[in-house]
Write a structure and sequence with these properties.
Shape: globular
Strand content: 5-15%
InterPro entries: DUF1501
Number of helices: 13
Distance between the termini: 53 Å
Radius of gyration: 22 Å
CATH architecture of one domain: 3-Layer(aba) Sandwich
CATH class of one domain: Alpha Beta
Order of helices and strands: HHEEHEEHEHHEEHHHHEHEEEEHH
Keywords: Signal
Protein name: Twin-arginine translocation pathway signal
Organism: Aurantibacter aestuarii
CATH topology of one domain: Alkaline Phosphatase, subunit A
Pfam families: DUF1501
Structural class: alpha/beta
């Protein structure tokens, strides 16, 4: 059997290639998740415009720089006398009112990169802007603190750099049930039975066979643990809604997974931003509200922390196409049941002191947020994972 035939014919191939290092012990694993802390990461991919998300409604500079795309004060969702939310973020406003939301403003890093790919890599690997790491910060967490690859799951068909470690990768799957069915595909099982007849060194087939065996046992574990096949709560019918629904089902099933990674794409709003961003923020907030309510009804919200970030913010001034171009610092949302800092962690940028590109300067390094979550929430050595020491914040 040639490698290209395996890749062409196996329904599991795409998942297998992103799911190495499983262990067969998963078949017999007994796990109880009492009090286990979980982290759900949401990436708003494309660079969400933070200024039209958390709005400085009393700031004349904001309105002067955005004559066509600014959000009017009487249309925005009131949080305080000076700050409001985008009118599409009703679900987020409800979380704010209940004390389940912490908004961290002006988050970024030194010498920001305005490339989607590079800035995403920086956020996913927790590197400096002039460093290039091969492994993600979640992957390094797995290397040092996990035994099973499914202890970090990305709700997608391919694995982000964030979940790739040197010794252990997370897994990527949109549908655990389909993943399990693929692992029992007749061709897949036939290939495993034939492995002794194949020269294993050819095209790294030895590695592939081990990966396939490990993936099969892990698919079995996830399928068996995923006991909540459906929920009584209705999620919005969107790809993002499906990601969060699957995540909630796995969490409520007490699976041994500490980190879940999800994403909502489309935030690169260079043209006609208002409608496009508004629709995306509505999807985000509606799905997030349902997700939190699902966890609350099942008693799992108290042990779940939700982190939302985007790889950068947008330029303060609108462009000629009624959109915004790539910027720098942005806001980050943390949602949880026992936040020490509810509402606003820090002040919004003044908009009077911008960088040389006309962008918001960062006050808080995003790795300080990672360090806080690793140390205070997941109870692991943040310095070893982030490779250097960062200050810990006081929001959890």
């Amino acid at each position: 059997m040639k490698r290209r035939d395996f890749l062409k014919n196996s329904a599991l191939a795409s998942s297998v290639m992103f799911a190495p290092s499983f262990v067969n012990a998963a078949n017999n694993l007994v796990f109880t998740n009492t009090g286990q802390k979980r982290l759900v990461i949401i990436q708003l991919s494309g660079g969400n415009d933070g200024l039209n998300t958390v709005i400085p409604v009393d700031n004349d500079i904001y309105y002067k720089n955005r004559p066509n795309i600014s959000i009017e004060k009487n249309k925005a969702l009131h949080l305080s006398d000076t700050i409001s939310l985008n009118p599409n973020l009703i679900g987020l406003q409800k979380l704010y009112d209940k004390g389940n939301l912490c908004i961290i403003n002006n988050v970024g890093y030194p010498n920001p990169d305005r490339s989607h790919f590079r800035s995403t890599d920086i956020w996913q690997t927790a590197s400096d802007s002039n460093q290039f790491f091969k492994y993600g910060w979640v992957g390094r967490y797995l290397d040092q603190n996990a035994k099973f690859a499914y202890q970090a799951i990305e709700l997608d068909d391919s694995l982000s750099l964030a979940l790739k470690g040197k010794e252990l990768n997370g897994i990527a799957t949109k549908n655990p049930e389909a993943f399990f069915k693929a692992s029992n595909d007749p061709f897949f099982n036939q290939l495993l039975r034939q492995k002794t007849d194949v020269h294993l060194s050819e095209h790294n087939l030895g590695y592939l066979y081990k990966t396939m065996t490990d993936a099969k046992s892990s698919a079995k574990y996830i399928n068996e643990k995923n006991t909540i096949k459906d929920t009584r709560i209705t999620y919005p019918n969107s790809n993002f809604g499906k990601q969060l629904k699957t995540t909630a089902n796995l969490i409520n099933s007490n699976i041994n997974t500490q980190i879940f990674y999800t994403s909502l794409d489309g935030f690169d709003t260079h043209v006609n931003q208002e409608k496009r961003q508004g629709g995306l923020l509505k999807t985000y907030a509606e799905c997030l509200e349902v997700f939190v309510n699902d966890l609350k009804q099942n008693g799992t919200f108290k042990d779940t922390l939700i982190l939302t970030f985007s790889e950068f913010g947008r330029r303060v001034s609108q462009n000629a196409a009624k959109g915004t171009d790539h910027g720098a610092a942005n806001n980050v949302f943390v949602v949880g049941d026992e936040l020490k800092k509810q509402g606003f962690y820090n002040d919004l940028a003044t908009l009077e002191d911008l960088d040389d590109n006309g962008d918001i300067k960062y006050d808080i390094d995003f790795r300080e947020i990672y360090a806080t979550i690793l140390n205070k929430w997941l109870n692991v050595d943040d310095t070893a994972i982030l490779i250097k020491k960062f200050n810990s914040l006081d929001f959890i």
